[in-house]
Amino acid sequence: MALSWAFDLLLAVGLIWLAWQTLFGHHRFAAVVSFMVFGLLMALVWVRLSAPDIALAEAAIGAGVTGALLLSALGRLPRHPEPRHLLRPWQRPLQLQALAAAGMLAVWLGWVAHRLPRPGLAREVASDLAATGVAHEVTAVLLNLRGLDTLLEVAVMLTAVALVWSLGPALRSFAPATALPGLPALTHLLHPLFLLVSAYLLWRGSHAPGGAFPAGAVLGAGGVLLLLTDSVPWMHRERYQRRLRALLAAGLMMFLAVALGGLLITGTFFAIPTPLAAPLILAIEVATALSIALMMMAFYLYGEPGR
Amino acid sequence: MSAFYALLAAVLCAMALVGLFRFADPLRRVLALNVLASAVFLLLVTLAQSAEGIDPVPHAMVLTGIVVAVSTTAAALALVVHGQGRHRDPGQSP
Predict the structure, then answer these.
(1) What is the per-residue pLDDT across B8-27, written as a single tens digit (0 to 9) for each?
(2) Do the domain assignments include residue B76?
(3) Among candidates A214, A204, A207, A54, which has minimal Cα distance to A140?
(4) In chain B, positions 47-76, which contact chain A (CB-CB < 8 Å)?
(5) Which domain of life does the UniProt lineage start with (chain B) (predicted)?
(6) Which three-class secondary structure state does DSSP give residue B49?
(7) Cβ pair B55:A66 closer than 8 A
(8) Which end of chain B is more exposed for a tag (fewer CB within 10 A), N or C?
(9) Domain total for chain A?
(10) Signed CA dihedral, A135, A206, A287, B72: sign only
């Protein structure tokens, strides 16, 4: 018991120190690297709070894909020193008040989180689990009970891809500053492993922690690694553009098809009939994982390919 | 244990808010936004631990939230890169 407390305390101190380095450290590069380590420690916190699904997604997205995005953005930004806010004289006393307000917000948030009643929906979800077609609660909530939220979330992601691509042609990935002859070979060796892990996570999702989000995140992280070594030339070819867009939208289309099919059969939007639930959810998961992986790669291009 | 992590989330929230409003550098603001998102997710997951077991609904919310956070980050970074790239190269037509 004392050991687990010591672990929690160490984790908390580490997280606060890394957040401090991320926010107030002197160098931007160190800040980005601190944030990536922060993501990895957050994954450990999710394990401690018995949320393994979130831990898997956070380790692949928070430390992997977000880190790659931040680092490549940092490489493209001008190297002049960071701009600083110079406070006007009348703003100085206000700054202290703002700091005090932030401190009070922290105290208030902690107190509310301590006092808030926690009725929870655990019992309701457990009683409806048999009708959802999957045996894992989080997957059941994500893809059946609250499927509409997940549909809208995939739509948000697709909108973000449209925004990024509307800014101009894709930026060419630039060569690393030092020659890394091992990187392409390592990427090609690792890629089957990425495919295997994401297929396993996808299959596991129906009965255990896993599912479309961690699978898509792992596949996307592997894809970003491939983009780093310029191993995905088809993404930039004119011929494949239509297919690429169809795959990007596949997750959302599959969701919409199932939701509208439910409307036709049962009269309720997103009502999946119980006998069909298991295969339909698997189909949605495969399409969503593929779309999420491709969308992560699409973000990394910082523009529209094939132009 | 959940009260301890709720306190950690509150501290991280305050730090990220100070950073978000204090910095002039857009990259730091994106970082602060990400730390703030992590703190809010932490708060949600600590609230998921109720008396009758672990509530899966906040877990699902956080899982979608992580993906929305990476979408926001990517969109913001693309805007920053395209916006500041033009400053670097004044000869290029907008």
Answers:
(1) 999 999 999 998 888 888 89
(2) yes
(3) A207
(4) 47-57, 59-64, 66-68, 70-75
(5) Bacteria
(6) strand
(7) no
(8) C
(9) 1
(10) positive
